[in-house]
Amino acid sequence: MTSGSKECTKIIEILLHYLTIKNSKNAQGLVGLRNLGNTCFMNSILQCLSNTHDLRDYCLRNTHRTDLNCRANAALMEEFAKLTQTLWTSASNEAISPSDFKTQIQKYAPRFVGYNQQDAQEFLRFLLDGLHNEVNRVSIRPRVPVEDFDHLSDDEKAKRMWNKYLEREDSKVVDLFVGQLKSSLTCSECGFCSTVFDPFWDLSLPISKSSGDVSLIDCLRLFTKEDVLDGNEKPTCQRCKARRKCTKKFSIQKFPKVLVLHLKRFSEARIKTAKLCTFVSFPIKELDLREFASDNMNAIYNLYAVSNHTGTTLGGHYTAYCRNPSTGEWYTYNDSRVSPMSSSQVRSSDAYVLFYELTNSSRM
């Protein structure tokens, strides 16, 4: 068979697969979202979240209703759940309008009023924060007194600080998306090391400006590399009681079930925002993050969704690549259009926000 014949056969197979999807009432989760006017950033993130297995089931089973917080009107969570349910139970594969959802997200975050192009990662943060607030199991956030944990071991200190966080912020959204970051500050003068443990919803990773190949692991190493704080950046050493030159380093203390990695493609230049179009290679399966763990714990992740940005900072477009949690097949979501794709096509220089799921073998 010639290379041309092979290419023809491949195209026919994809077309047949696509037609099967269009005519199947069981092709769940393969419904597009209409673009309401520069809302591709929103559609891309919604499709990534719709293919987040545990969050999808949380909505499909209406479990969210038992968690609705009496302090909030819960309209955003209800519209998100309704949209997710429609995407997964619709008998038709016709694209649906997310206008009711948009009405609620712009009430929660007025920055999304109107139809200007927005940043997908910023939208994700606002949306997860809004959903969390409406299903927070803590109705009245208690005042958390300041406590001194410096006499404790790092592991015990991390547990105490995580429990203090959960006293105020405890929801299904936190269960899935929030991890804990360890920041270590070491004094160059006396060697004293102080540690702080903070929750994180995603990690914004710098991209190396190297002309060669860049991998996701390279970006993570750049994020966690030891930095020297000197000059105006000198912090106060707790032991010396004076500002000292210090080194600062990040590591991951607690890995979330869903790890969201944001590739920092947009940088503020003097005159305008510039975009880095560097190709960053990332694994589809078995992303091993043990080297970034505070205690070398097992942390293996599989990719299940990517929010992509094509174009420039002045005019761009967002799409999503998602692995269907029911079938394991990959699909392209381009606003109203949904089409099958190969896992080999998932990596591109357009990748902007990566969604990874912790494997069962890594779960504690």
Quick structural gist:
This is Ubiquitin carboxyl-terminal hydrolase 2. The chain is 31% helix and 25% strand. It is an alpha+beta fold and 364 residues long.
Broad shape: globular
Which value, in Å, is the CA radius of gyration?
Answer: 22 Å
Which CATH top level class fits? Alpha Beta
How does the major sheet shape up? 8 strands, mixed
How many domains make up the coordinates? 1
The separation of the N and C termini measures: 50 Å
Strand tally is 18
Overall pLDDT: 90
Q: Helix/strand/pairing class, anyone? A: alpha+beta
- The CATH architecture can be named as Alpha-Beta Complex
Helix content: 25-40%
**Tally of helical segments:** 10
- Unreliable stretches covering 5 or more consecutive residues: 19-25
Keywords: Biological rhythms, Cytoplasm, Hydrolase, Metal-binding, Protease, Thiol protease, Ubl conjugation pathway, Zinc
Catalytic activity: Thiol-dependent hydrolysis of ester, thioester, amide, peptide and isopeptide bonds formed by the C-terminal Gly of ubiquitin (a 76-residue protein attached to proteins as an intracellular targeting signal)
Main location: cytoplasm
Family: Belongs to the peptidase C19 family. USP2 subfamily.
Summarize the structure in words.
The strands form five sheets. Strands 3, 9, 13, 14, 15, 16, 17 and 18 form an eight-stranded mixed β-sheet that branches. A four-stranded antiparallel β-sheet has the order 2-1-8-5. A two-stranded parallel ribbon has the order 4-12. With 364 residues, it is α+β, with helices and mostly antiparallel strands. Helix 2 crosses helix 7 and helix 3 packs across helix 5. The chain has a single domain, classed as Cathepsin B, Chain A (Alpha-Beta Complex). Strand 16 and strand 17 (337-341) form a beta hairpin. The longest helix is centred in the N-terminal third of the chain and has 21 residues, at 3-23. The protein has ten helices and 18 strands. Keywords: Biological rhythms, Cytoplasm, Hydrolase, Metal-binding, Protease, Thiol protease, Ubl conjugation pathway, Zinc. Belongs to the peptidase C19 family. USP2 subfamily. Pfam families: UCH.
